[in-house]
Amino acid sequence: MEALLYKPLYYRIAVGILFFNQGIIFSAWATRIPDFKNALNLTESQLGSLLFALPLGQILVMMLSGWLVAKFTSKNVIKISAFIHPAMLLLLASAGSYLQLFWSLLLFGMCANLTNISINTQSIDVERIYGRSINASFHGIWSLAGFVGGLLSMLLVAYNVSVWEHFIGVVAYIWCILFFILKYTVPTDFSPAKNDESGKTRSMFKPTPYILLLGLFTFACMSCEGSMFDWSVIYFRDVIGTPKDISRIGFASFMSAMAMGRFLADFFIEKFGRMALLRLSGTLICVGMLSAIVVPNVYAGAIGFVLVGFGVSSVVPTCYSLAGRSRRLPSGIAIAIVSTIGFFGFLLFPPIIGYIAEISSLRFSFALMGCVGIMVALMSPLLRNRIAEIEKK
Hints:
Elements: H1 2-30, H2 33-39, H3 44-50, H4 53-60, H5 62-72, H6 74-93, H7 98-130, H8 135-158, H9 163-181, H10 209-240, H11 249-272, H12 274-294, H13 298-313, H14 315-324, H15 331-359, H16 362-379, H17 384-392
Helix pairs in contact: 1-6, 1-7, 1-8, 1-9, 3-15, 4-7, 4-15, 5-6, 5-7, 5-15, 6-7, 6-9, 7-15, 8-11, 10-11, 10-13, 10-14, 10-15, 10-16, 11-12, 11-13, 12-13, 12-16, 14-15, 15-16
């Protein structure tokens, strides 16, 4: 009886650790991008083209990931993908040319997506078991891991620890943790609440307008998020002019705000609702980005990136949570569709930032993300009816 009482807590802890692992893996790559740029002598436009590879890899297997999760359950997919994904860091570290790094990033993105769709499905399962909003806190754990990874990277760079040594340490840590926590993941995923009017559940190739709209919001947010991941360190180094050892302060500021915002989001949702959260998020993205652009110094830049981090923090987990409650699609497939649309933003915006920076300036490129915030704030009422229906339950 006692084991049954604590089982939801075990599920929550296990899924939280999986999100933390994903954040550590991603931050290991993201904070080392300047090292790869310098080692391979890449220009901004070349780096922009290279950054296509990771989200492209995610998109290529997105629907396959959703199908695998629906077919074999998220728990079984995690048992394989969660071990392969961190190992791809070693493939990145061994890349000695532009093309080698491109193909390594493509594989890295594929493995990342298999794990991401699985653990996001797990997070919706746990949220349904708890019967209240907790999904944003899982994404907060991911962001916290990114913040921790960013600080760790700053320390390692200061002590001249190589990329190889850094990545080997991450892989060893992840593998050790996985052996202990995988048995505590949710064994069976939830099915759609009910069918559509024809009596048949929708397929991944026939999503509802509601799912497509969630995908659009995810697209907007992940455009901003991906650009901050890939260009925040370079923005502080090249535009603001910070020394190498503190150029990652922008990334750390952004990630710490994302983590805090996601931990606060579930409380905010329970108190004020998802509509209010989406409107506030869009406003913060716009104001924060303008602050970093108009006053390009360390303090204004860090504060602006903090505001952007708060704004970006809750849009994706909110959209995933809403998608996971689809009445016509299994959670894994619904999340995969929304993620696919979102990752086109993650795919397109970082390279666009590089191309526009080459033509004009990086500051002008970052102004595009302010427009993303305006779009999120103005379009959020389109989700009003479905959000109201879910929040009444």
